[in-house]
Amino acid sequence: MKNNYKAFTLAEVLIALGIIGIVASLTLPAIIQKQNEKATVTALKKFYSSISQAFTFANLEYGTPDNWYAIDMTQAERSMIVADNLTKFMKISKNCHNNSGCFYDGTFKSLDGRNFHFNGKEHARFVTSDGMSILINGFTTTEMQGKEDSFGHVYADIIVDVNGYKKPNTLGKDTFSFIMLRDKIIPSGLPEHIITSSEESVSTFPDDCNTRKCSDICESCTAWVIYNENLDYLHCDDLSWQGKKNCK
């Protein structure tokens, strides 16, 4: 029986491969970005679970944070105490205390493109066993009194860079903040968490988590990522806690 099938010519094969290559070049970056964002969500939720558990154990051992500080302690001393009390119940690979290292010392970016730094001897730093860089900023008594909010006094800020020293080193992309209260640690940007001090009264989502112009340094994305499990605020600007939760 005669076979009437016709083979592809070399030119046709090359054209087909070219088309496949073009399609791949257009779709692969988006696929890779989506996978990276999923990895960020997973890492951030893992850290939140770990730091919350450590805080619970620290409260059982040392009491609530209002018992951790002496009134005349410096900010550096307060940061160190918070870090020491938490790391006792965490798996860490390195503790830099108030010295440089453990946390990227270069320029960070906000989602709206501004530059800033997390540095200074007043901060404590450590690295978790899975490579996340942590910075602790313990507040002085005066600062705490100026940061009383709907949940009570704020005792410290906790900053996590989920991929360590690697780029992009941008708040809302790989770097996120948490707030230590008297009885819990919460992610920045919770809709019911409104700080009463005038300079931070609008530090909520989406005012302080967008790519156009943030009300502060764009640190209010953390709660969105944890509870909605996406970074879609990077791709569309009509998201809200009361309405649309993703770009689809």
From TrEMBL:
The record's keywords, sorted A to Z, are: Membrane, Transmembrane, Transmembrane helix
Domain DUF6613 residues, every copy: 30-91
- Which InterPro entries does the annotation name? DUF6613 (IPR046721), N_methyl_site (IPR012902), Pilin-like (IPR045584)
One of its Pfam families is DUF6613
Q: What stretches pass through the bilayer?
A: 7-32
Against NCBIfam families, the record matches this protein to: IV_pilin_GFxxxE (TIGR02532)
Q: What is this protein called?
A: Type II secretion system protein
Specify the species. Candidatus Scatousia excrementigallinarum
